[in-house]
Amino acid sequence: MAHATVRTEAISVNTYRPNAPFKGKALRVERLTPDESPNDVRHVVMDLADGDLQYLEGQSIGIIPPGLDAKGKPHKLRLYSIASTRTGDEGGERSVALCVKRVVYIHPETKEEVRGVASNFLCDLKPDDEVLITGPVGKNFLLPEDPTANLVLIATGTGIAPFRAFLKHIFEERPGGWQGQVWVFFGVQTSTDVLYEDLYKQYEHLPNFRISLAVSREQKNKKGEKMYVQNRIAEHVDELWSWLQQGNTYTYICGLRGMETGIDAAYAEVAQQAGQEWSKVQYDLKQAGFWHVETY
Ligand code: FAD
Ligand code: A2P
Questions:
Q1: Contact (CB, 8 A) for 199 and 170
Q2: Residue 39 to residues 102, 188, 193, 234, 238: CA-CA distances in angstroms?
């Protein structure tokens, strides 16, 4: 198998470490899901002025929430995929954007409401609040430099964050644009909760852009169960397999870890029909830099 093209761009990693984080400031927080939605997902933009934090689309940053944990120790950092491009979020300031889902759940034993520390801190930020930032991290979940490469971008929920950055970079910022085919598979709960929907509408007219949604609480898969993103993949896996055969196709998976088994099962079936073993094909794709996974 051919290897992915060699990267020439410089990649910064760990410019800011947990013992000396960057002191950023909140710029703006925008709720992405409608007020009536039970999901509270927010686009959180932070100022990076006066620092050295440079990043590429696909990298993540760490956030250290203020305060102490239950053991009286400073909170550990939480990682978040960057949702903005290297030039910052819209508006031109040196900034970084995240797509954060507020974690709130009922504790199974105590039956009390628990609010996730970092996600609630980020969702509730007000302009000028201080935010301790580490990173950037990630050297692999990056766009290929070759604009003729095909991209298969598979996300659930906030896993769309790095793909927002990818799409904005290749279609709006990259000199020369993008010639390869770009296919987004996106799993969401309801059609009102399609994060960054306006963005996909903007690209709809492009001949090389396509998006397939899996709306779990409104659509059913062929077994009559919830439609998950892996079920959408299964529907199109013959075409996706043919893309893989062409070479120069890069697949990226981001979001809930649970989707991976189903994606593998879909590809395994078509690989088997072609007389190949998916685990081996996938291993080779990973080794050659064509298959990238960031799940949590
Ligand atoms: P915590 O205070 O850490 O609590 C979370 C814990 O609560 C979980 O570990 C789990 O044990 C428990 N819990 C959560 N829900 C339930 C439930 N329903 N029932 C029972 N227990 C539960 N998150 C994003 O929102 N956007 C991103 O772009 C993003 N990118 C990530 C990238 C990477 C590489 C990784 C590793 C994670 C990413 N995350 C992202 C997840 C993020 O790091 C945090 O884990 C998440 O925001 C929760 O952190 P918290 O501090 O709010 O919750
Ligand atoms: P659902 O919540 O209906 O089960 P979230 O908003 O919690 O990040 O989820 C994003 C989407 O991923 C939702 O449609 C959710 O469906 C779906 N989802 C949940 N578990 C899985 C899984 N194991 N595989 C694929 N998608 C999943």
A1: no
A2: 8, 11, 8, 27, 34
| Domain boundaries, position 163 | 150-295
pTM of the model: 0.97
Q: Is the residue at 57 inside a domain? A: yes
H-run or E-run covering 261: helix 259-273
Residue 42 C-alpha to ligand 1 middle, in angstroms?
Answer: 14
Are 46 and 182 within one domain?
no
Q: How far is the CA of 121 from the centre of ligand 1 (A)?
A: 12
Of 139, 137, 185, the residue nearest 159 (C-alpha): 185
| Residue 55 domain-assigned (yes or no) | yes
Res. 6 pLDDT band, cuts 50 70 90: low
Asked if 115 and 154 sit in the same domain, the reply is no
Cβ of 103 less than 6 Å from ligand 1: yes
87 and 198 share one domain:
no
**Measured from the CA of 161, which atom of ligand 1 is nearest?**
28
Q: Is 13 domain-assigned?
A: no
